[in-house]
C-alpha cells in the first residue's frame, strides 16, 4: 500500500514505528504562535490565532495550540527524536515554522539529533499589507539531515525560496499548505522512498508525496481532519495511478 494513515497522538504512534521506516520527515506542526503575550499565545484557539475575522470559510479548529514556547520546544524535541530514529541514515527532515518559533524550532531540531543544514522560505503572495509595518508574508522550513548529506542518493537541485498562496478554492484546513510547494519539498525524498508526516492535518504532504510517486506515512490527532486526509490521499492515489476503480482503505491504527 503506498500510504498508511494513523489516528492518534504523534509521540505514541511514532514510538511504535520501526527503525529505518522513512527516508524523509516533512511536517507542519502546530506553531503555538500568534498573539502579543504568552496569555494570547496559550489561551486562544488555532482558529482565533490564524484566521482573520472576515475569512470566507468556516474550517474546523484543531488541538495542540496551547503550549508556551518552552513546552512547545520540549514537545517538538520528543517527536523529532522519534522521527530521527525512524529515518534512514542520510535521510532528510523539513519542519515548517514561523518567525516567532524559528529559534525554538532550530534548537529542538538539533537537540533531537538532526544536523541543521539551513532554512528555506515559503513566500505567501496573497498576504495582507500592514500599515506602518513590514509585511509578514513568509513562513520558514528548517531542514537538515540524519548524519552526512549523500548527494548521490538523490541528486536534485531545489530552490531556497518557494512562492505560492494558501489554497482558497476547496480549502480544507486552517493552516493548509499549497500542494505545489509540497510537491517540490517531497522531492527531498529519493524516488520510491517514504515520507513521514507526524502532523498530517488534511493530508497535503501525503497528497504531494503520492503525486510524486513516493510512499507516505501520516499521523493525525484530529478525528475530523483524518477523515479529510484519507479522502484526499485516496484521490491523489487514483490520480497518480490513473485508476478510478480503486476502492481504498488506508491501513493504520485508526
UniProtKB/TrEMBL annotation:
Residues 23-230 form the DNA methylase N-4/N-6 domain. GO terms for molecular function: DNA binding; N-methyltransferase activity. It comes from the Bacteria. The keyword Transport does not apply. Residues 24-44 are annotated as: Disordered. The keyword Transferase applies. One of its GO terms (biological process) is methylation. Keywords: Methyltransferase, Transferase. Its EC number is 2.1.1.-. Signal peptide: none annotated. Belongs to the N(4)/N(6)-methyltransferase family. This is Methyltransferase. The lineage of its organism: Bacteria, Bacillati, Actinomycetota, Actinomycetes, Kitasatosporales.
Amino acid at each position: 500500500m503506498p500510504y498508511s494513515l494513523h489516528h492518534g497522538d504523534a509521540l505514541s504512534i511514532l514510538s511504535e514505528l520501526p527503525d529505518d521506516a522513512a527516508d524523509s520527515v516533512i511536517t507542519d506542526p502546530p506553531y503555538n504562535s500568534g498573539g502579543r503575550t504568552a496569555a494570547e499565545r496559550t489561551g486562544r484557539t488555532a482558529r482565533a490565532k490564524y484566521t482573520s475575522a472576515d475569512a470566507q470559510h468556516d474550517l474546523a479548529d484543531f488541538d495542540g495550540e496551547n503550549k508556551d514556547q518552552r513546552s512547545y520546544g520540549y514537545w517538538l524535541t520528543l517527536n523529532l527524536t522519534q522521527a530521527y530514529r525512524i529515518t534512514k541514515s542520510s535521510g532528510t527532515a523539513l519542519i515548517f515554522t514561523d518567525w516567532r518559533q524559528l529559534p525554538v524550532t532550530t534548537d529542538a531540531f538539533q537537540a533531537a539529533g538532526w544536523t541543521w543544514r539551513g532554512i528555506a522560505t515559503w513566500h505567501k503572495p496573497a498576504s495582507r499589507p500592514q500599515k506602518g509595518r513590514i509585511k509578514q508574508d513568509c513562513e520558514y522550513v528548517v531542514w537538515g539531515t540524519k548524519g552526512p548529506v549523500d548527494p548521490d542518493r538523490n541528486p536534485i537541485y531545489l530552490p531556497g525560496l518557494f512562492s505560492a498562496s494558501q489554497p482558497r478554492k476547496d480549502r480544507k484546513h486552517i493552516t493548509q499548505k499549497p500542494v505545489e510547494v509540497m510537491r517540490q519539498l517531497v522531492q527531498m525524498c529519493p524516488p520510491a522512498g517514504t515520507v513521514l508526516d507526524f502532523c498530517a492535518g488534511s493530508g497535503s504532504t501525503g497528497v504531494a508525496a503520492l503525486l510524486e510517486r513516493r510512499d507516505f506515512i501520516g499521523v493525525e490527532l484530529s478525528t475530523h481532519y483524518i477523515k479529510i486526509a484519507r479522502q484526499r490521499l485516496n484521490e491523489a492515489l487514483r490520480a497518480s495511478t490513473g485508476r478510478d476503480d480503486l476502492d481504498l482503505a488506508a491501513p493504520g491504527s485508526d
